[in-house]
Amino acid sequence: MSKDKFDYFIKGERNKYEVIIGLEVHAQVSSNSKLFSGSATKFGAEPNSQVSLIDSAFPGMLPVINKECINQAIRTGLGLNAKINNNSVFDRKNYFYADLPQGYQISQYKNPIVGEGKVLLDMPYGSKEIGIERLHLEQDAGKSIHDMDPSSTYVDLNRSGIALMEIVSKPDLRSPEEVNAYIKKLRTIMRYLGTCDGNMQEGSLRADVNVSVRQVGDKKFGTRCEIKNVNSIKFMQMAIEYEANRQVELLDEGKKIEQETRLFDIKKNETRSMRSKEDAHDYRYFPDPDLLPLKIEQKLIDDLKKSLPELPDNKKERFMNDYGLNSYEANVLVSEKEISNYYEEVAKLTDKKLAATWMMGDLFAMLNDKGLNISNSPISAKNLAELVQSIKSGEISGRIAKEVFELMVESRDNPKKIIESKGMKQQSDPKELEKIINQILTKNKDKVDQYKSGKEKLFGFFVGQVMKQSGGKANPQLTNEILKKLLKG
Amino acid sequence: MSEIIKKNLSEIIDLIKKKEIKSEELVNLYIDKVNKSKKLNSFITTCFEHTIKKSKDFDKKPNLNSLLPGIPLAVKDLFCTNGFKTTAGSKMLENFIPQYESTVTENLWKEGAILLGKLNCDEYAMGSSNETSYFGNVINPIAKDTVPGGSSGGSASALAADLTPATIGTDTGGSIRQPASFTGTVGLKPTYGLCSRWGIVAFASSLDQAGPMTKSVKDCSIMLEAMAGFDKKDSTSIEKKKENYSKNLKTDIKGLKIGIPKEYRVENMPKEIDELWNKGKSILKDLGADIIDISLPHTKYALPTYYIVAPAEASSNLARYDGVKYGYRSSKVNDLIEMYENTRSEGFGDEVKRRILIGTYVLSSGYYDAYYLKAQKVRQLIKKDFDENFGKVDAILTPSTPSSAFKIGEKTNDPISMYLNDIFTVPVNLAGLPAISVPAGLDKKGYPLGLQLIGKTLDEQNILNVAFAFEKNCNFKNEIKNWWL
Questions:
Q1: CATH topology of domain A430-488
Q2: How high is the ipTM of this complex?
Q3: What's the CATH code, domain B4-257+457-474?
Q4: Stated pTM of the model
């Protein structure tokens, strides 16, 4: 991660290649009901328990647009600095599959709700802008379950009709690392906006990955392959790695890349051909005659814009300006809305820089260790602030603070209570310290002489003795000062 | 007593309101005749137990202020009816029982009407003669070897044969107006979006519209009033206040401008259609209307446009009938693809397959621009033709069909000549306008013929008024001889 120069290239036998990646991210819209029906969208419900007559395409059923899904798409578009189209159209994408009850998916083809936008990535080699081609709304399909019975397939339509946003990037990504940063950034933005929970395990966020390679210096893009429906960042990165190398090998052998759709096999860590361009579906797109063209008033866009929360890029800038954080710290602390809220709560009450250090160090390590996240942290923002404040005021040392921190995790108590009850307060009374130091110097006269004759390394020994004597509670800074003063005398 | 069911809906409503007949008595009269009229094959499903029970409930506590108090109504089998089979005339839905009620039928029941049964129709409403139904062709009561038209053929046949006092159909390219014309009845296709499409088996979403089929214009206004209304479950439904079409019905059409489009005088049109059209013009002229020649230059492109747009939408709308969730599933199933292929090959009839193929073709990449996109552009031009002329005229008068009812089997092997039946009706669907077919005369065989009045968007009241005035002065009499009894 500490590379300061971009260096993701693939060396073939003969040539050096650059990898071109574009993503089509499918993000489930956070909404209580589906895109065109009133059915619930809760994850993990009993199969076929969230299915209306519309979702199961009974004769004579008609779709009615869910306004909240439209608003969510607009919010997301605004979050991606994109153009919101006042006029867009829902089209039918026709194909047969058992978990597609209508025999078509309602999607947006030529006229999407959101047009071009951009996302900023913070890479170790500087910031990079990734273009957004478009965002459109579409229905999810149901789920075919092939492994419940040896001879038949079962279909669960709970997902059928759930609203998805397909966010199509420009082919601006150049490495698995950038893909990682891009997906995380998209997720952060959508979580800030509350438009998608970004939960990849539950399938709320998945992507089709387009990969091509070209010789370094070439201007023309190579032939791309599309890897369908990858549902974790790790798998995306593995798939890209494999696919790019496969393409490089072919090109180095003087062979051609065939444009095709491929599948990523997690177990074998390889991509496999699913269908070639010739076998590509003819989806027979046409405007859905059951739905009128979608007209969005400028006022709605303006109102939604006004009500948007502060987004990560702005928040990062503010954290750097107001709290004196560096770019890296600010990045980490805005990566999730909850983390940034927690940080601001802590920073409000105590030293801003020290608060950042403690959060990014001990707090994150502990949460990671325990498999927790910030929302269920055993240490509240207020308690962490008190702890940081105790260090800052000299009440306890950094070393003692670590012990207090451990006790706070165990007991969920506030640090003041722990410090008091365990007598962990730092010894910061100069007179008391002088008394202890004098005793030690008297006891170790020989060492004092050696020190004075030039063996200054012994200073550490005296400090150690003071700490030992005080049970670790002596204020280190004060101890240093007094020791120096008395040794001079 | 059997004279009662020959009466118009409005007269029967009066009898109920005056307590001269009970709902249950009325219901039994219809049940009796339906039972004796199986030869017409106009019903796919009857639900007499339900009808009788509901009529008894009504009689116990009659709400005489409703629009359709205790009136039994059979409806086209394209409307989903809660707990009663809804087949769309297809083997695919032969045993499909919806657990929901279409908005339009729900509106009728709220006004006091009672479901009497489900009426035969072309499969998925695709046809102009009711010969594509999986449940067999329907016979037109005017003569035993004639078709009732389609796709709402069962509705038209049952209505003309006095098996239901009024009914509802759906009209995608003429499916209400053409059968109305063939059976000497009144049929109205409302403005697209006036009646909710929710719960109606879809054929072509941008064209489908439900509407009333009745024995008189007044009946038509009552039925439209009952069935129309904004529905938030249909995104293409028009949000507007309900109108009292029946109360506002009037015969004074003095000073109204009626347009006569020259493009509707097509080649090889029978002379009697032309004469009928002239008769219509002179009746309206005598009533004080101004007759104005107009031009709708893109009319000749309407039929080809329709046969691109409608199949395209149908090919997608019918994709849901795949054997997975409900409806027919082939017994020859070894894998998913085979299930799709066999289910759809066995479950759909030839006309439906033909349109799915056409629709799939015109939407395919490489053909989309040349067919579907072009058709959408032409559709706009057709709409523009109407818009421009509605600055000059208040309504447009045309023949409803290029011929009277034809013989069963006459056109089944010639889809193009079958499609030509809709030549005067499809432009209206493409433009989303309201239009009504009123019976206007008989041809030399004694078969009825209708004239069509096309109105401005949401101007149903106006074309109802013109039709009402026309009806009063036309002296049309349907001669149905109950030959099948």
A1: Arc Repressor Mutant, subunit A (1.10.10)
A2: 0.96
A3: 3.90.1300.10
A4: 0.91
